[in-house]
Amino acid sequence: SLAFASVYAMNPSIFVLDEPTANLDADAIDTLRQQIIQIKKEGRTVVIAEHRLYFLMDLIDRAIFIQKGKIVQIFSGNEFRNLSDEQRIRMGLRSLVHPVLELPPADPSGAQEGLSVENLSCAFDKQPVFSGLGFSAKRGEVLGIVGHNGAGKTTMTRCLCGLLKEVNGTVRLDGQTLKAKQRNKASFCVMQDVNHQLFSDSVWNECELAQPDCPPERIEEILRSFDLLDFKDRHPMALSGGQKQRLAVATAILSNKDVLVFDEPTSGLDYHRMLEVSNMIRKLNDENKVIIIVSHDFEFLGRTCDKIFDMEGCSIERR
């Protein structure tokens, strides 16, 4: 919102938005949509590069489909809106209608096998963020966590992974209480901004850093499954945003930790890449991991998760 407001204040005639909804909740997306409507009414041009499409469907005047750096097809607004599901999926496009998330709620805290969170309270920069958080994530089950922007989801992931110490509460793994340092050793977190966790000088070395004892065949298998093998010698910072995201997810899988936490893992991913990440995470169920996904991407959550925990159920401390 701040970035959009700062650009609007410059009174440009053309707005170019690159993945503006990547980390936005439904309310924030609706606010952005209203802003776009206002800009159109003012007679200004809006160019949007976006994977999340449903909120734009009645606003689009033209749609340009780009593949491998080339313009493949240009649609009128009506032509684009009338794409069949078969055409959309073949093109690798996300849902053209608002996805509905219908999954059972998370179990209350107390699971013996898996991760159990009881009465958790966290703060950031000495300011309280949330309190009274409680849920269970069983082994072999994918738990999705949702909540509005500012609900404390990212702070919660940092706390679960031991990157941030809790103020109060208990976190147990398989019935054993874990302090922050122990949680850090047992878990791996794919952060919302993966640029903060890619350190090595090549894609291959980044994978080895995640699991130094990992057989080369396993690294090759994972990189191939994420379509990254051809980039194994490339510096991670030279990858596209979507490629960085897939690399971070790949390193999480290779880490072989008991608890895997993914914070917005589909940011910047098209339909096909989203499916790849979903399928790889589902396969981890067979390895009896604790898997937690924090996301606003209902299309992805509906495909990937077994249960959902809504953070609006705990006490959120608004600053």
TrEMBL record:
> Which Pfam family is one of this chain's hits?
ABC_tran
Q: Which residues form the ABC transporter domain?
A: 115-319
UniProt cross-references to InterPro entries, sorted A to Z: AAA+_ATPase, ABC_transporter-like_ATP-bd, ABC_transporter-like_CS, ECF_ABC_transporter_ATP-bd, P-loop_NTPase
Named from the GO MF annotations, one term is: ATP binding
Keyword Translocase carried by entry: yes
Q: Which SMART domains match?
A: AAA (SM00382)
Keyword list (alphabetical) reads: ATP-binding, Cell membrane, Membrane, Nucleotide-binding, Translocase, Transport
Query: How does the entry describe its membrane topology?
Result: Peripheral membrane protein
Entry GO CC: ATP-binding cassette (ABC) transporter complex
Q: What is its main location?
A: membrane
**Localization in the cell:** Cell membrane
Q: Which SUPFAM superfamilies match?
A: P-loop containing nucleoside triphosphate hydrolases (SSF52540)
- Do you know which PANTHER family this protein is assigned to? ENERGY-COUPLING FACTOR TRANSPORTER ATP-BINDING PROTEIN ECFA2, HEAVY METAL TRANSPORTER
Name of the protein described by the UniProt record: ABC superfamily ATP binding cassette transporter, ABC protein
Instruction: Look up and give the organism this protein is from.
Output: human gut metagenome
